[in-house]
Amino acid sequence: MRNRAKEKLRRGEAVLGTFVFLGDPAIVEIAALAGLDFVVIDTEHAARDIAQVESMVRAADARDITPLVRVSHLDDKEILRVLETGAQGIMAPQIETAEQVEQLLSAMRYPPRGTRSTCRSTRAAGYSSRSSVFAEHAAEVDDQLLSIVLVETAAAIENLGAILDAGPDVAFLGKADLASSMGFVGAVDAPEVEKATQRFLEECAGRSDGPWPGLVPYGGSESFGCPFLVQSTDANVLYDGFTAFVQRYR
Fold it and tell me: Taking the model in full, what pTM does it have?
């Protein structure tokens, strides 16, 4: 298993991706051909079953783009099912405590580092082709997977230090939910939300040993020094393209 996005992060390079809400694996291929480093296949907000996730992971593998999956909630069995498709990382929503981070990491890792159930017949395990070297395979997987926590509530900002100390690979700021949790539904640029954003950025910047910070650069091209950047969603990109065409020619 080779996680190209994680390799770039470890080299100090930025990685670029998008959330995939639409159901066609062709979206993943197009993202790869456009030069993105990863996709986040969404199962929290999008109508999608595990077979669709696996098809999208296959498309990512075929085009050498890192397939990550946002799970609907922090649940060990849901995480296991996603990882067995061959997904190379998990994004967990609504993380507010160090204990939740520890649960995520444990669910993603094989014993003795974690509690991930062992099966040698899944797609992630090469359909039993790696059975004779499974211990080595498990160690490699534990090293290559990306763990991503969504910091997207006022409670998470208040507990940010403990969340980062718990050791996720990436801390991703979810400004839309953060704004809502602070009483500013839909107003990601509210002054109070910007203040919380600055706290997140400063706390992450003060740590030389991680996690890598990430966000959606709302309102412009400013990355704020974050190496893990997401360009909105595939649906938004498509809508923006159609809207620009209509505005130009109608």
Answer: 0.95
pLDDT in tens, the chain (250 residues): 899 999 999 999 999 999 999 999 999 999 999 999 999 999 999 999 999 999 999 999 999 999 999 999 999 999 999 999 999 999 999 999 999 999 999 999 999 999 999 999 999 999 999 999 999 999 999 999 999 999 999 999 999 999 999 999 999 999 999 999 999 998 888 999 999 999 999 999 888 788 999 999 876 656 788 999 998 899 999 999 999 999 999 9
* 8 Å CB contact between 83 and 75: no
Name the catalytic one among 2, 13, 34, 45. 45
Closest CA to 66 of 171, 144, 170: 144
The residues spanned by each domain of the chain are: 4-249
Name the fold adopted by 4-249. Answer: TIM Barrel (3.20.20)
Q: Is 137 a catalytic residue?
A: no
Q: CA-to-CA distance for 177 and 195, rounded, in angstroms?
A: 15
